[in-house]
Amino acid sequence: MDTRKLKYFLAVVDHEGFNRAAEHLLIAQPSLSQTIASLERELGVPLFHRIGRRAVLSEAGQELVGPARLVMRDLDAAQSAVQALRGIRSGRLDIITMPSPGIEPLTSMIAGFTRSHPSVRLNVVAAFTPEEVIESVRSGSTEVGLAGSPNPIRVPGVQVLELERQPLILIVNPQADTFRPGTAIQREDLAGHRLIASQRGSLMRWLVDDALAGGVDLEIVVEVAHRTSILPLVLAGVGHAVMPSSWAPLAHKSGLRTLLIEPVSHLDVAILSRKQDLTPAARAFLKIAELHVTRPEDVPHQHS
Predict the structure, then answer these.
(1) pLDDT at 250 over 80
(2) Omega before 232 within 30 of 0, i.e. cis
(3) Model confidence over 209-230: pLDDT tens digits?
(4) For residues 2-23, b (16+ Cβ closer than 10 Å) or e, as one string?
(5) Residues 246/249/254/257 CA torsion (nearest 10 deg)
(6) Which one, of 235, 234, 212, 210, lies nearest residue 222 by Cα?
(7) Phi first, then psi: what are they for 176, rounded to 5°?
(8) Which percentage of the chain shows pLDDT scores above 70?
(9) Which pTM value belongs to this model?
């Protein structure tokens, strides 16, 4: 099995069909089909089900995606290592992130990384749960992952660097700001207020549900899966929102007030990677990440 066949296979996966993959690879579509057919003969199993013009991965095809990406990434790493000897710094780094760590600390880390390595292209994909991040890094689909969870992440075979603890804050709807002056509120103070909530399974939603279960008479007015919608909804006066403190700078730039919610709940943010066989780009990114580790004594007690 040669790497060209794996490259063509991944192109069909990434471009969701033979026609667009052939256009991306700058080859004729029949040539691509013949190469995939040859790979399927070598493996003895179909890799795609052809449904009309679409190519849907078979079970065997799904199993091949992760190992194929690892092979191609290792090939890139080998090329990068050789090129580095000639003074060429290039390559690509695949990162997966959950929404809140994707605002901070990922933004600061990417800014630092691109200043030092301007020729490396970053590809950032989205995840909504720590499990998705762990699986992506484990399978080799991505090299580096950022996850936020209620407790520190421990995963066999995966390197975990704890970055920071983000306290949960309330982003205040300016049209319903009846909270007393100050920088913090109690959960009970949410009584009588309308909230925009993220989907079940998130720490932010847990805090809202826990307050409800504890007898706090609040109302969930909107449930949002895409957290990029939350800040605009607060600005539009729809409701308040419980979010990690990584959202505070954006909220403040938008003219919104934030309040620390006591007793404080924290989102533990960590960066995940494979323990071996990382590309030079991934190793360089992890070095940048180490500069963003926040120690307990660095954490401010109040967020305003």
Answers:
(1) yes
(2) no
(3) 999 999 999 999 999 988 889 9
(4) eeebbebbbbbbebebbeebbe
(5) 90
(6) 234
(7) -140, 40
(8) 94
(9) 0.68
